[in-house]
Design goal:
Blueprint lengths: L2 E4 L2 E4 L3 H4 L2 H10 L7 E4 L18 E2 L3 E8 L2 E8 L3 E2 H8 L12 H11 L6 E2 L30 E3 L8 E6 L5 H7 L15 H7 L4 H12 L3 H9 L15 H12 L16 E4 L2 E6 L1
Parallel strand pairs: 2-3
Antiparallel strand pairs: 1-2, 3-11, 4-7, 5-6, 5-8, 9-10, 10-12, 11-12
């Protein structure tokens, strides 16, 4: 399997035959150290088509579009995500290709990125993110987001991601190899926010590490049993660990401005159409298919 380096990132160019087995390909990438960089790029073979026809997506409903308001300067920013009313994809497409939202003409991606950060606080982008579902054809067997063949297929989460490059769509899902189980067993849940999630590792240990199941249950039970020290701490009101919770809300003076900008979204726009891209990126156990 061929790969090369671009800007410190490993770029893989598999054949269709090499592309068929997702878990095996991930193992190959890890054997060559791709996971140490935190991100890698895979260029699929030209024969691979996740969807033959995108003409039927115009009536696809985006339930909660998000308008992303950014405040800050000199590289330090706060983001406020304002949920919008639902709309269909054809309307979203019109907005994305309007003069208000379409990207400026640039000579390369670096210039586009510079312009994005220079203007990020002026024109809030609209994202159709966190939408369960898939545009893959059901008979696609290679790298199908819905069933990649990894240990996370039973607890798959799909969500959309957008980047500041005009109209585009991305499908992404979490995945994990057998090597990930030990990390999952040792991971601690972040308590800094109320909406943080945690994956229960029981199903993975029982299915993929059956020889460790009994010992795993004993350790888990011992951790859950309160000790005399912890009982004494609760009775005396002593707090050994203080958890801080931070929340950010737009200042009162911003609300009227956000409302005014919100009302300006429904203006006349131009037609446009997205086309499927040819890049797949992988970062931190996630595969992203970009449809450009």
């Amino acid at each position: 399997m061929a790969f090369h380096m671009e800007g410190g990132i490993m770029v893989f160019t598999p054949t269709l035959e090499q592309f068929r087995d997702f878990p095996r390909f991930i193992s190959y990438m890890e054997e060559h150290g791709a996971h140490h960089n935190g991100i890698a790029k895979i260029i699929p073979p030209k024969e691979w088509k996740p969807c033959r026809d995108y003409n039927g997506v115009d009536d696809f409903v985006i339930p909660t579009p998000v308008s992303q308001f950014v405040t800050g300067q000199q590289g330090v920013y706060q983001v406020f995500n304002i949920q919008k009313k639902s709309l269909i994809f054809s309307k979203f497409k019109e907005m994305a290709n309007s003069d208000l939202y379409k990207p400026p003409k640039v000579k390369d991606n670096e210039e586009l990125e510079r312009k994005y950060w220079k203007n990020v606080t002026f024109n809030p982008p609209i994202y159709g993110a966190d939408i369960p579902g898939s545009l893959y054809d059901q008979d696609v067997k290679e790298w199908n987001i819905n069933h990649l063949g990894t240990i996370l297929d039973t607890v798959t989460e799909e969500y959309g991601v957008s980047i500041p490059g005009g109209l585009n769509c991305a499908e992404s899902t979490n995945f994990a190899s057998l090597r990930w189980i030990e990390y999952g067993k040792k991971a601690k849940r972040c308590m800094c926010r109320k909406d943080m999630v945690q994956i229960n590792m029981d199903v993975f240990v029982e299915k993929f590490q059956p020889e460790q199941w009994e010992e795993y249950c004993r350790k888990k039970e011992s951790k859950a049993t309160p000790t005399k020290h912890s009982e004494s701490s609760r009775s005396t009101g002593t707090k050994h660990n203080k958890l801080l919770e931070f929340s950010f809300k737009p200042p009162p003076t911003k609300k009227s401005k956000l409302k005014e900008e919100d009302d300006d979204l429904e203006e006349e726009v131009d037609e446009g159409r997205g086309q499927i891209g040819d890049d797949i990126s992988m970062d931190c156990g996630r595969v992203n298919l970009m449809i450009l």
